Amino acid sequence: MQQWTGDCCSNSPAPKLELPPLKLGPITVDTPVILAPMAGITNSAFRRLCREYGGGMYVAEMVTSRALVERTPESLRIISHDEDEKVRSVQLYGVDPVTVGAAVRMLVEEDRADHIDLNFGCPVPKVTRRGGGSALPWKTDLFTSIVQTAVREASKGNVPLTIKMRKGIDDDHLTYLDAGRIARDSGVAAVALHGRTAAQFYSGKADWSAIARLREALPDIPVLGNGDIWSAEDAVRMVRETGVDGVVVGRGCQGRPWLFGDLQAAFEGSDVRHRPNLRQVAEGVYRHAELMVETFGDEGKALREIRKHIAWYFKGYVVGGELRTRLALVTSLEVLRDTLAELDLDSPYPGVDAEGPRGRAGSPKRPALPKDWLDSRALNDDQSRDISAAELDVSGG
Question: What is the DSSP string of 355-369?
Fold first, then answer.
């Protein structure tokens, strides 16, 4: 199916950002935009949709190091890439240096990745209560060991390794500056910061000033900013306000893979933006579903997976509640096609109603942590024994 461009607008040319290509070891990303790994979303189907619109680097769903070392079928599916993906990017989650090292070694020795990212940003309680995700950098000995081990294994294949993290556990227990310096000194290729704490989850506003402080603290490696990039204009503003070398986009592209076209245009100094009418959105949804069938090889599973995307795609558009419900319960491509045909396909782009925040923000909450976790920046014996249980098949950041 041919890529559609949507209705675009172009006024006077915008000033071009003087932002050089992002260099990650031997990899050059001409448009310094990274698709954040999102569980159940950034599979090969969604990555292809994004690539069809614009440049950047597209990271696969996070995979746990333990599952990868054990070669579970799901973990091997997650790290699979299309033949035309120029940079095969994989994100690992782990809490045990030995297991993380083994997973990196497998990816390198078996030539399964060109870029590896480590996730230290997950705020999900069932991860943080075991000391994983955004809770882990608080323990500087564990964090240092994991990053150093991963960098050492990745360097054997000249594969750049990066990290993604949050500001810290809460405003009283910030870790991002220490973690950034440790990662830099360990030899990572870049550091990405989501400007929220674990306590914020996805609520409130991302703290771009923290991203700017990290950029200033680490002048010798690329720093990437993440959080509250809902439009190309947001990305440009983040670069100008913080001085980052590139941006990481997560929830902002849910139901809007064409955002990557807007981002590339903005970084090139163009005002062209995608403004799809309802017919074009419907075509995009069907295209996404077709690619999901190819990805999973199972039409039923693919259509169950597409359901979560329906509300994101149609945000702001006039679609009746009964029709939205039916779209969220489709069981086959044929049913999806017939249901989409019932839409008022000539409805125009709804403007601001289709833009802005999307996805669940949650609410601030006290982070769930292991017993006595905040008493020391080093692991105690009990914590050392228990932390391996944090390797769960969850994602976020």
Answer: SS--S------PPP-
Q: Give the residue ranges of DSSP H helices in the chain.
A: 44-53, 65-69, 73-78, 97-109, 125-128, 140-155, 176-186, 208-217, 232-242, 259-267, 278-296, 299-313, 321-327, 333-340, 381-386
Active site residues: 122
What is the pLDDT, as a whole number, of residue 394? 54
Q: pTM of the full predicted structure?
A: 0.93
Per DSSP, 139 falls in state S
pLDDT in tens, 278-290: 999 999 999 999 9
Q: How confident is the model at residue 391 (pLDDT cuts 50, 70, 90)?
A: low
Compute the CA torsion angle 357, 163, 93, 367 (nearest 10 deg): -60
Are 124 and 133 in contact by the 8 Å Cβ rule? The answer is: yes
Q: What is the pLDDT of residues 236-283, one digit of tens each?
A: 999 999 999 999 999 999 999 999 999 999 999 999 999 999 999 999
CB 202 within 8 A of CB 362: yes
CA separation for the pair 379, 68 (Å, rounded): 25
| CA 313/CA 2 separation, integer angstroms | 19
Structure token pair of residue 201? 């989850």
Compute the 3-state secondary structure of the chain and give helix, strand, coil in percent, each to the nearest 5: 45, 15, 45
Strands 246-249 and 33-35: parallel
Spatial separation of the C-alpha atoms in residues 46 and 58, rounded to whole Å: 9
* Cα three-residue angle 130-136-137, rounded to 5 degrees: 165
Q: Which residues contact 227 (CB under 8 A, 6 or more apart)?
A: 194, 195, 196, 206, 207, 208, 211
Token readout for 79 is 């790290």
Residue 68 CB partners (closer than 8 Å, separation 6+): 75, 76, 79, 92, 103, 106, 107
